[in-house]
Every structure is written in C-alpha cells, then in structure tokens.
Design brief:
heterodimer; A: about 100 residues; mainly alpha; 2 domains; about 0% strand; elongated; B: about 90 residues; mitochondrion (chain B); ribonucleoprotein (chain B)
Chain lengths: ~100, ~90
C-alpha cells in the first residue's frame, strides 16, 4: 500500500488544479454562457468576462494534465491505463493489466 | 425550388419535432456552455485514493499494523545512537 507521497510534486499541483476546477465549474460555465451570448448587452458580457478572470488561476481546465498515477510523470502516459511507459511495462510483465500481454510471434 | 419562407417553416417545425433550439440566421448563442455536461467530478477522481499506515492506525485506533518504513527508520536511528552519531538533544530552557 502506497501513499500519495510517491508522486512527483507537479502531480500534486495537477491534483490541486483538478479540485479547484471541480469546485468552480458551475460558476465558470454560467459566466462563459453569459460572456459568449451576443444577444446580451456588452456591459453584462464584459462583467461576466471579469468574473471568469477573477477565478483562481489553477481553476482553469487548461492547467489540468493527465499524469502517471503511479509516478507522476507527465509524458509518455497511456490514457487507457493512466500509466507512464515504464510503470506500464512493469505491470504488463507482471500480468496486472487486463487485456495486455507480451507480443510473441 | 422551395421558397425562403417555406424553408423557415420547415426549420421551425424540425426544431419542434426534434426538441432542439430554433436558431435563425445561423446566429450563435452561448448555449453550448449551459448544455455541456459537467466533468469536474470525473476529472477530480483521476488519481486513485490511497491511504498510508499512519492514517489507517489513526482511523482504526489500532497498533497491530506494522509500518515497515517506520521500523526501518527506528532501526537506523538506534544504530546511529550506538555509534554516537544520533541527533543532538534539544536545549533545555
């Protein structure tokens, strides 16, 4: 059993971004709707834009990145398993990934 | 060639039948942001939840779970104390 302490520190930042995004999502979407609606007066739209920009920086979805759930590595992550290349290989050879087997022909 | 009025009528009727929003002149509204499915909960649960032995012992109020990392640390600490290289004692006021 492992704690989350084994992840890279940037994975913790990603975790923070995900939590903040989930927290502010409804507010963000509603203000986006107001801002992107050309039928509303311009003042109302600009005020909605200000409210979006006033959200915390880490609450934006562009800050979220899928990292390895084992090591926290940011590149070479398989989306289907959430693992980087090397942990994926280790688990695959240990027969721990369903549907994955070593190629042999 | 169908006239513009008939095409407009067809558009209105189609929106009514399929339950979509009627839109004239290809005007854009921000409706997609309101209709969009919320994905915060899914994104938040990307990393699997984990627990360590200290939290487990605190939760269960039990001491029977051995923490091998902690035991190793205590072993190393005793070894250093035996060599006279342990941590210095804190000053007494």
């Amino acid at each position: 059993m492992r704690a989350l302490g084994h992840l890279k520190h940037k994975a913790f930042r990603d975790l923070l971004c995900r939590r903040l995004f989930a927290e502010h999502e409804v507010e963000r979407q509603s203000n986006l709707y107001i801002y992107r609606n050309p039928e509303l007066p311009l003042r109302v739209r600009l005020e909605a834009k200000k409210r979006i920009e006033a959200l915390p920086t880490n609450a934006h979805p562009t800050k979220i990145k899928n990292r390895c759930i084992e090591t926290g590595r940011g590149r070479g992550v398989f989306r289907a398993f959430g693992l980087a290349r090397f942990p994926f290989r280790l688990k695959a050879l240990a027969n721990k990934l369903p549907g994955v087997r070593k190629a042999s022909w | 060639m169908a006239s513009k009025a008939i095409l407009e009528e067809l558009n209105i009727l189609s929106s009514k039948i399929f339950g979509t929003q009627y839109k004239s002149n290809n005007s854009r509204t921000g409706r997609k942001f309101v209709v969009q499915e919320l994905k915060g909960a899914k994104l938040k649960s990307y990393y699997p939840a984990t627990i360590n032995y200290r939290q487990l012992r605190t939760l269960l109020n039990d001491k029977t779970f051995p923490d091998s990392d902690e035991e190793l640390r205590m072993e190393i600490r005793k070894g250093r104390i035996r060599q006279g290289k342990g941590a210095s004692k804190s000053k007494k006021k």
